[in-house]
Amino acid sequence: MSGAGRYPRWRPGIELREDWLASVSEEIIDPDREIVDPHHHLWRHGDAVYELDVLAKDTGSGHNVVQTIYIECRSYYDQDAPEHLKPVGETRRVAEMAATVPSGSAQIAGIVAFADLRRADLGETLDAHEEAGQGRLVGIRHAGARDSDPDALMIPGRGDAGLYADPAFRRGVAMLGARGLTYDTWHYHHQAEDFLALARAVPETTLVLDHFGTPLGVGRFKGRRDEIFRTWRDDMASLSGCSNVVAKLGGLSMPDNGWNWDSRDRPPSSDEMVECQGDWYHHMIECFGPARCMFESNFPVDRVSISYPVLWNAFKKMAARYSPEDQTRMFSETARQTYRI
Length: 341
Known about the structure:
InterPro entries: Amidohydro-rel (IPR006680), Metal_Hydrolase (IPR032466), Metallo-dep_Lactonases (IPR052350). Strand 7 (182-185), helix 6 (192-201) and strand 8 form a beta-alpha-beta unit. The model is unreliable at 1-8 (pLDDT under 50). With 341 residues, this protein is α/β, with parallel strands linked by helices. Helices cover 35% and strands 14% of the residues. It has an eight-stranded parallel β-sheet. It has a two-stranded antiparallel sheet with strand order 2-3. The protein contains ten helices and ten strands.
């Protein structure tokens, strides 16, 4: 299965508009700062391909990106394998790609794969991922994203109802911790209480919250950003009390967040991103602390809205108010410690 199976409403090629992205160009801020990008994908959407060559162009566009973490997106599945082993094809293919990255380029240092954490044969699936990953498997993402109006979303989640409360699922998340693997998640802002209950139920497993919990800004949530921010702010403060949760700072420029940057004549500048989104970032850092925060690109998904160099310029502008040590944590060390790379 290609990435297109993951994002049925994705407009193929929207993530590859090079001329549109290049219409906003900025001088690179703090170009020597070491960066670990803990969240990107690789995929094929028909003729629209985001694989190593385009990734290298992004990570090599001026910022000092030295390592990355690949996150599952249902690419490269082995359709000839038994159902529980089909996702192992993704791990195998990405590990093969990672082995070809030349020295001096950003290395794919870790892979977060998919496995159905509810299955009785989960151990067999994890063993197969370990072998296929060639030392790069660092975690599993079995996302819980689910909304009652999926037709309003460009990237509708496919999580099952009640997933986070499912006893079998919680046993699977606990198994990840016992194996030294992380659990990555993606869900929507209105699922925050369910995720909080999960985090409290599996304290021995490191849970990685992707994309701020995806505050939606389309469909029934259009025009309600201030209201959502107030509720989200309290939800994140509560969640930060779970010491096993680490937060990724990024993925807030997806079309479903409702900024509508993807439909403009020009993408935003780093200053505009800071002005629009800065309060969300600073609240997360205040709640979780830099030791549990890591900036992420979420490329090529956020690539529909903003270019890689401009995105990381915005991160650096937002991070400027924090100490050099805290900046190092958020740009590289939190990711390395969380994923043990």
